Amino acid sequence: MICAAVLTSAVFTSCSKKDDRTLYLYNWTYYTPEEVVKAFEKEFNCTVKLDSYSTCDEMYAKLRAGAKGYDIAVPSNDFVSIMIKQGMLREIDQTKLTNRKNINPVILQKADYDPDMKYAVPYALSATGIMVNKTKVTNPNYSRDYDIFSDPQFSGHATMMDEMREVIGCALLYKGKDMNSTSDSDLNEAYNVIANEWKPNLAKFDAEGFGKSFASGDFWLCQGYPEIVFGEVDESRWEDTIDFFIPAEGGPATLDSMVILKDAPHYELANEFINFIHRPENYALFIDEFRYPCVVNLPALEYTTKPAMYNAEQAYNCTLKLDLGDDLDKVHDIWQKVRFN
Q1: I want to staple 21 with a disulfide (CB 3.0 to 4.6 A). Which of 1, 46, 156, 193 is the partner?
Q2: For residues 330 and 184, is the Cβ–Cβ distance under 8 A?
């Protein structure tokens, strides 16, 4: 990975020297609408070069290994917090951020690590929730909270994400605890719920394939990112097939944000791009392509043309997964007990 990072660094640095009107964007795979990029290139007479990553760990490792030449990255909130502390980011030029008025103040309150957008401008809120295959249930009066994972009608056909912060976070919320708690007593309560009440009903912990298995009818109950399920079910069948909800106790969420890297070679252009994204008509293109509820940029809702996967109000009840620092090891130890005991 280090070799790859060094090579990419050389390539990107070389390109940036040749063309000062080229913006280098480092974003999640399939997370940048081509229509928005082309509109930006036309208006600002520039070229946008995109490199992608599949996890924040991959992005962070590559940058820490010395990759240079990138202007903008789009890390999740826990990595934003880490990158701020480690001096990896350059401050946003607030005079260029004229569209800051469009960003939902409720979302900024959740981003307590940078509520004034000094370093990070929200891009998208991704919440996880629960999806029921309505065509498979025998008793439609199922519980619409985390108790559903102990419902015997789903035995052998239920799955939760293979991701410790997700599952343990859900259990903490179910027990009325802070989703980011690392107290021993809270974590032990979470373990008992998962191991004794939920896991006996689960077919598996699954972070990737549950969408296809839901669509094929193998899984009837899934906890995870809704786009993974909605993306596998034909839109004409959404209403009759998928019941998506976030329990009243809340659920885990991540906030991806646009940041300018410390050594960004095209700082001015990077600021223009971030501001451009948050023009309501541009942000609406992003919402329409990925079908997220419109919670980050509220004026964009006027310009959307497609229905979201779920009601935006549900997303407000979610809690961001925070950087736990060294206490993450305690969560990892509990997860190992869950997975292998």
Answers
A1: 46
A2: yes
Q: What would the pLDDT profile of 122-151 be if each residue is shown by its tens digit? A: 999 999 999 999 999 999 999 999 999 999
Compute the 3-state secondary structure of the chain and give helix, strand, coil in percent, each to the nearest 5: 45, 20, 35
Beta-carbon contacts of 334 under 8 Å, excluding residues fewer than 6 positions away, are 164, 168, 187, 188, 190, 191
CB 35 within 8 A of CB 92: no
Is 47:19 a contact under the CB 8 Å cutoff? yes
Phi, psi of 103 (to 5 degrees): -85, 130
Residue-range domains of the chain with CATH: 2-125+254-306 (3.40.190.10), 129-245+319-340 (3.40.190.10)
Place of tokens 């292998």: 340
What is the distance, to the nearest Å, from the Cα of residue 104 to the centroid of all Cα atoms in its chain? 17
Distance in angstroms (rounded) separating the CA atoms of residues 331 and 85: 22
Q: What is the DSSP letter of 21?
A: T
**Which residues are CB-neighbours of 21 under 8 A, at least 6 positions away?**
44, 45, 46, 47, 269
Question: pLDDT tens across 71-116, in order?
Answer: 999 999 999 999 999 999 999 999 999 999 999 999 999 999 999 9
Phi, psi of 29 (to 5 degrees): -60, 135
How many helices and strands in the chain, by DSSP H and E? 14, 12
Token duo for residue 30: 């399939």
Neighbours of 135 (CB within 10 A): 11
User: Is pTM beyond 0.90 here?
Assistant: no
d(CA 319, CA 55): 20
Q: Within 10 A of 192 (CB to CB), how many other CB atoms are there?
A: 12
17 has a pLDDT exceeding 70: no
Query: What DSSP designation does 297 have?
Result: B
